[in-house]
Amino acid sequence: MPVRDFYDKIRKSAELLGYGNNVLINQFLRGLNDDCAIKAERIGAEQDIEELVGLFERVKKRKAELRLGRERQENICYQRDRQIIPEQLLPVNQEPVILKPVQHHAITQGEMNRLLQQQAETFQSQIHQLQESLKTRDIKPVYRPKPKPKPQYHDDWELYA
């Protein structure tokens, strides 16, 4: 709630209830938020309450202006940083390149299929030779020695060392 509205509400209530100026000032100062209460203490509550309300309004307006200015400046910097500026390359003298569509390929689809089939047959024969060579090798099973039992008593340690 703006300070002026808060003050007007308290002033009207004080007038309706017949309270004096001291009660009005006391209730106004008690109802301020922490920031405004600290400012009121710094300025001094001895000033006229109308001047104090006007001062709070000016401070609040100035804060809003500063915040808007800062946000606007940040927005300008943000937009400037986001702009993509194309880099201009230096002109280079060169011959023009003319691209012509290819009318005919050096290899036909039938030749491609024949080459792929030949490659697959070669690969299959190599796999078959590898499998045959592995079958002819002598493969001996690997035996692992049994682990020694752990000693259960302190006296048995010398036997297992």
Which bin fits the share of residues in helices? 55-70%
How much strand? under 5%
Instruction: Write down the overall geometry.
Output: elongated
Counting DSSP E segments of at least 2 residues, the number of strands comes to 0
Largest sheet: none
Helix/strand-derived class? mainly alpha
Radius of gyration from CA coordinates: 47 Å
Count of runs of 4 or more consecutive helical residues: 6
What's the overall average pLDDT, rounded? 80
Low-confidence stretches: none
Helix and strand sequence: HHHHHH
Distance between the first and last residues' Cα:
88 Å
Tell me about this structure.
- It is a single chain.
- Helices cover 63% and strands 0% of the residues.
- With 161 residues, the chain is mainly α.
- Helix 1 (3-17) packs antiparallel against helix 2.
- The longest helix is centred in the middle third of the chain and has 34 residues, at 49-82.
List keywords for this structure.
161 residues, mainly alpha, 6 helices, 0% strand
Write the layout of secondary structure elements.
Layout: H1 3-17, H2 21-31, H3 34-43, H4 49-82, H5 109-136, H6 157-160
Helix pairs in contact: 1-2
Biased composition (Basic and acidic residues): 152-161
Region (Disordered): 138-161
Briefly say what this structure is.
Residues 152-161 have a biased composition (Basic and acidic residues). By secondary structure, this protein is an all-alpha fold. The chain has 6 helices and no strands.
